[in-house]
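Duplicate of earlier report; F-box domain-containing protein input re-posted below.
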Amino acid sequence: MATASTPMATSKKLASPLTDIADHLLDEIFLRLPTPQDLARASAACATFRRIATDRSFLRRFRSLHAPPFIGFFDRDGFQPALPPHPSAPAARALAVATDFTFSFLPSHRRWDVQDIRDGRVLLRSGPQKGEEPANFTELVVCDPLHQRYLVLPPVPDDLAASLEHRVSMVRKPCRVPLLVPLSEEEEDTSFRVIWLACYETCVAALVFSSSTRQWRIAASKGWSDLAISTDESFILSRFPPPFARSHYAYGCFFLDWVMINCKKLLMLDTRMMEFSIVDLPPGKWSKEGVAIVEAGEGRLGMFGFHGKTASDLSYTVASNKGKSLSQWQMKKTISLDSSYKYCIRGATGSDRKYRWFLMPLFGLVDAGWGVLLGSERPSLFMPSSAAAAMEHVRPLVDRDVQQAR
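Output:
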């Protein structure tokens, strides 16, 4: 009996250390799993693994190292999920079925337009009714479309708006852009902040709403002259149409670009310090079809953009220094795209860890929203289902090695 029981005892001793590993070591092991799907499978193994894998602090670390997959994008026709053969197509289809991307659960007294998307939340702005004079600060709502929860933000108090507008010239209404601030590592998952960025003739200001206080406050204000912006430039910027204002986010800062009006500057708002500053674009003539600001790694900014008027050579430039004083940029590579199409950069996402994507509608084949997805993976094509029948006409564009640098 003694000899027969020995293997069983040995087996128990070998099996027990798997769940006896210290939590901090399991953290490090799970952080090295290649995909979120692998983490989900590991968490199903036992209660200990699930407890660690669902811990908020661990999940934030994991997400910082593993960029989320591309699922789809919003255009004027609503949510467009990734389609086959893109690897995210099954997940995109499941999300589209489970989520109300028509926002029918929102109050129906207004038309709601998508403004920003961060951390599973969507920021929407109310549109004016027919014949109605637009409000100074229009109504905003933040919602979770998956669980159909929402919060209609209180209006900016009249006295707060008046105290700001009293300081500036109000010949015309300023350009106002709403922004949804990404969560920082210190913030709870249930909290969020919204910024109204307002460009007046003599200054720029940021009003911030916090879900924890449920109140608006003036968080930052700075004169254009203090930012070395000329009178002529500030006159144009204050009249910049909000629908054409493109914002980018990197390293805790929002960047507003004005390339559509030939202004070679970026307005930067540091959301941690709540300070405004100006960043000059890299030298050269940049197309009006937009730029994309990304995290290039080691705290440096990266920028995608088109040179000249044809918008067929996509350039990637990286700032050679960190911080606010971005005086030097270095061209890293140029990607040649098919010159028979017209491209327009619409946005960027990802991180400096692994992925970098941006969406460029193509025009020239059919009246539909086409797109090319570039990043650390093979380039791929995606489009609304209405354009799927024409996909074979664009396949050569996708199969090209568009990531090949000159």
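Residues 184 and 252 are 8 Å apart (CA to CA).

Merging into the original ticket.
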